[in-house]
Amino acid sequence: MRRGLFCLIFCVVAAALFLGVAAAVADETGQAPGVSMADQAQINSGRWSTVDHSKFDVLKQKFTTGEDVTKACLSCHTEAEKQIHKVIHWTWLSPTGGGLYGKAGYSINNFCISTNKMHDDECENCHIGWEKKKDGINCLKCHNTSSIDWRQEFKDLKEALDSGDPDWSGEIENDIIANVSKIALPQRRNCGECHFNGGGGEGVKHGDLDGSLVNPKKSLDVHMGIDGQDFTCTRCHTTMNHLVAGRVYSTPATGTIGKRVSLVQNDLAPKIACESCHTDKPHGNALKLDDHTDRVACQTCHIPTFARAHSTQMEWYWETAGKTDNGRVIQRKGPYGRPVYKSIKGDFVWKKNVKPEYFWYNGSIKSLTLKDVIDPSTEPVWISKPVGSPSDKHSRIAPFKVHRGSQPYDMETGRFLAPLLSEEDNGYWKTLDWKDSLTRGMKLIGLPYSGKMGFVKTCYVMPTTHMVAPKEDALSCIECHTRSGSRMAGIAGVYMPGRDRFMPLDIAGWGGALLALIAIALHAIGRIVMSAARRKEDK
Amino acid sequence: MAHKKMTNIYLFTRYERLWHWLQFVLITILMITGLEVHGVYQLLGFDKAVAIHNFAGITWLILFFFFMFWVFTTGEWKQYIPTTRKLIDVALFYAWGIFHGEPHPVPARKGAKHNPLQRLTYLGVAAALLPLQMLTGFLYWSYNSWDAWGLGFLSLHLLAVVHMAVAFAILIFVIVHVYMTTTGHTVTAHIKAMITGWEEIEEGELVQEWEKHSP
How many angstroms separate the CA of residue B10 from the nearest CA in chain A? Predict the structure, then answer.
């Protein structure tokens, strides 16, 4: 009787516990802390202003130069110019590194190589001044919501005024008056004018930044999608005195990566990251997904591929540049309507829907400059490479676009060379003359050139962090947790179930199981045979 | 061999049988999902395999405390006290006597349902393998809390290797265990006993005094 009662009590308690655990483990309705925090960061995020710029008299005047517009802006925004002169958008120099890093320093990239200390004409198109660095700041470049190229607009106006055609100049003047006061915080198009066209064209450079982000669908970017949250760039790239958060150079990640400061706690964290809003527990307790956040960057799973809307350039070989068709420059088109060869640039490879490559990353990228001596015998030379290691607890496994190519270097000094590409009458794109453009380019930079030039294979990395896909498009476990073809095949220093095994143990374990099966099979056969023999004897 | 008269005895209580078959279900689930997580095959999908494996593992861990409670409050723990007495005899029986129709040297009796070899094996499984597997599994599951619990020194790689090693040991135990169920006086006698609780044994054998108490 007592035993029966005991069994009954046990069954009831066990069943209750079983159901309790089931509910706790399988609870998918509970909101993850990260989701709550992200929601909280969105409260009151609607932009508002107490100013309508179209009502300012100072903006209703007839502007004849861009400089005049800037003067009008500064008549109210008295501190803007001072602020701008300190920011990297203006200086093109990293605040750390003593003038070594940056487009105005000695940095090089895998595309147009160098700006020759801001002397290259085409590069200058993206500077936020009116004309080269010496001229005033161009507020409209970032803050005007019309699609006008204001630098060109005022050039056209000057030409029209000089021609003495009042219809032509009047038309432009009206256009300017109608649009100059359309002022707002930077829109996606403003930032995109330069950042979507990095590397000299639409989608060339980044792979996760291109024109498709001006009006993206939620499926392309879950935050920026106009059918969703409709984030502008500045929603994440927060600013203070025109300083923009979230750029990556050699500066170590002192902000949210590692320290995990939430934007909700500190709206001006110097480095922004997904965790700034989503925290390190963004998934809810349905699975072990939150267990990944200490070692895996959010982007790794949530950006399954980059260049999902437009193609991006993956390879650029300068060594093949310069071929002509009897003196005429060549341009051959390939897939996606992109050029696969240009006389002025060399061979290209373009790709779409590219799986990133993965590296340990602590938020810093180590990059080479024109002052570094390279070892051309160990190709490829990594012009930039993520910094991080599995033993550093601030490092995460993060996705990158790796761009490959070849670049000129000085065979005597062992340093990279920066050709002048575009100038009024000079530059490689005009002359296709390496010697002349390299001599001019290096002179502008103030570094020697021996005259002996060779090419070396190079790699260049860019973090993949935009174009975050909706959660249903995130990577499935098996993309990484698998023996063969794992996306993490090259990642060492972390144990991954499904990918990793301790081979001697697997051999011993399966071997032991096999031996056990053989042993029982033999034992069973022995019993059957002997039993049959005994039965025969009994008869 | 002359047939002795047979009699039925009630060997396994309802709770024991329930516990046994519950473990059978849990081990099956854990083995199938665990090997998928280990990358041996693809069956349910990695995420489902992980979810089910965790759920089954934690369930077992909790139920295991009930088993411990039962074992100690009912005095059943005495059935697991290891002994070397007749251990060699039992081993020799399975290696030799069983082929020649000899009787089992220590047949199951009420109050002494495990022979010395079973005592040793089940003690090893219940007191060493399973707790170790549950401990490593629980730590595996609570990976992100290690720092907070002051366990930051643990290595996931080492833990995974231990968890896998014990899994192989359990797999081998299961293979042999299932086979051993066929060694009763009929092929299905032991399995029937674990289902109904009743086992048919030869009449007249008494529990030896040494089997009742630990030496």
Answer: 14
